[in-house]
Amino acid sequence: MRGIVLSFSNQHAKVKCEDGLTRLCTIKGKRIRTLDGWYNALAAGDQVSLQPISDTEGVIESLLPRKNVFGRYNEKGSADQALAANIDMVVCVTSTGTPPFRPRFIDRVSVLAEQCGVPLIIVCNKIDLGLSDLVEERLSVFERLGFRTFKTSVTLRQGIDVLREALVGKTSVFVGQSGAGKSSLINCLIPGAAQRTGEVSEKYDRGRHTTTLSTMLFSEFGDLCIIDTPGLRRLAVRNIGLNDLGAYFPDMVPFLGRCEFGASCTHTHESGCAVRQAVHEGQIWHDRYESYLRIRAELEEAKHRKRAEGGKPHKEARYHIEDEEW
Ligand SMILES: Nc1nc2c(ncn2[C@@H]2O[C@H](COP(=O)(O)OP(=O)(O)O)[C@@H](O)[C@H]2O)c(=O)[nH]1
Ligand SMILES: [Mg+2]
Ligand SMILES: [Zn+2]
Questions:
Q1: Which of 157, 184, 203, 226 most suits a substitution to test ligand 1, by most atoms within 8 Å of the C-beta?
Q2: How remote is the CA of residue 178 from the centroid of ligand 2, in Å?
Q3: Which terminus, N or C, of the chain has the lesser number of Cβ atoms within 10 Å?
Q4: Residue scoring higher pLDDT (39 or 128)
Q5: Distance, CA 132 to ligand 3 centroid (Å)?
């Protein structure tokens, strides 16, 4: 029998099976071979083949091929962590305030969405708290880059219907800082979803034993399929070649290859760099460029660290990465 993973934790998966029943499943042999090296064996949205034991329990026998995976690098676990699988769209939920609007967090999500190969839309929630010019400006930068943006308020029930339309018929994953309103929006879009809201952030959750999970939810008539994720404080990017990163920034793409040093230009310091020139002239938003520099520094540091762990000599990373909240 086939099924779709709704959530997964500690070797147990909640699976919506093709007979319509939801079963709590263990994994046969405790391990799915193809996923060795991952932080988690399964993610919400995964298609599996299982053996039912009863109407409420089963055993997962294998993972069916994934169309795509949306994830991040889990620094604590030193492994890639899948947050959702087989998705059509990433929805980055931000808020106008509490927590503060963090455009560089959105930049990171845009890179991860590109890596996953699916479009990103941006939701700016809590507009009832007021929209500053700065937030409006940055949102319009994203619009110009081709990312659809939505302004919502769960409290005032504003902008929800327009957002709903963009989600119909797709499997989407909601990501964002803790407290931005992901679960509140989902409860509004899918009445009865009963996602816990006002949860403590990942930062403060460390000491507790409970595992926060990605959870897949369906609307009553199945027209919406949304994966809610726990609040993420850090979105580490990995598995992108240093020279390829520029291609993940649509605003940099027109300038790539036009630099004096050609494809070997890192766009960090070189003279005759077309990207730096474009930043200088305001064609590339300086804050977006700053995101590029930070992610590049992070990729570079990870590369050096890996090399060091492999026992080979390494240069000091050129940039120091501060432990910032993204
Ligand atoms: N003012 C205001 N508060 C909201 C809005 N949406 C959610 N909240 C509140 O923000 C807090 C965090 O919401 P939650 O959905 O748990 O955020 P999540 O961590 O992203 O899932 C809760 O106390 C919500 O009631 C909104 O549109 N306006
Ligand atoms: Mg939540
Ligand atoms: Zn350059």
A1: 184
A2: 7
A3: N
A4: 128
A5: 33
pLDDT at 100 exceeding the cut of 80: yes
Q: What is the pLDDT of residue 38?
A: 76
Residue minimizing CA distance to atom 9 of ligand 1: 181
> 198 CB under 6 A from ligand 1?
yes
Per the prediction, the chain carries an average pLDDT of: 88
Give the residue whose CA is nearest to atom 23 of ligand 1: 198
The CA 83 to ligand 1 mean position distance, Å, reads: 21
Q: Is 181 in the pocket of ligand 1 (CB under 6 A)?
A: yes
pTM: 0.90
Instruction: Convert the pLDDT of each residue in 146-199 to its tens digit.
Output: 999 999 999 999 999 999 999 999 999 999 998 999 999 999 999 988 888 885
User: Ligand 1: does its nearest atom lie under 6 Å from the Cβ of 247?
Assistant: no
Topology of 245-309 in CATH?
Ribonucleotide Reductase Protein R1; domain 1 (1.10.40)
Q: For residue 198, which atom of ligand 1 is closest to its CA? A: 16
Q: List the chain domain ranges.
A: 2-63, 69-228, 245-309
Regarding the domain delimited by 69-228, which CATH topology (the fold level of the hierarchy) does it fall under?
A: Rossmann fold (3.40.50)
Decide which of 275 and 78 is more confident. Answer: 275
Mind spelling out the 3-state secondary structure of the chain? Answer: CEEEEEEEECCEEEEEECCCCEEEEEEHHHCCHHHCCECCCCCCCCEEEEEECCCCEEEEEEECCCCCEEEEEECCCCEEEEEEECCCEEEEEEECCCCCCCHHHHHHHHHHHHHHCCCEEEEEECHHHCCCHHHHHHHHHHHHCCCEEEECECCCCECHHHHHHHHCCCEEEEEECCCCCHHHHHHHHCCCCCCCCCCCCHHHHCCCCCCCCCEEEECCCCCCEEEECCCCCCCECCCCCCCCHHHHCCCCHHHCCCCCCHHHCCCCCCCCCHHHHHHHCCCCCHHHHHHHHHHHHHHHHHHHHHHHHCCCCCCCCCCCCCCCCC
pLDDT, tens digit (0-9, with 9 covering 90-100), for 208-248:
433 467 999 999 999 999 999 987 778 899 999 999 999 99
The number of the ligand nearest the C-alpha atom of 263 reads 3
The alpha carbon of 184 and the centre of ligand 1 are apart by a number of angstroms equal to: 6
Residue 274 has pLDDT above 80, yes or no: yes
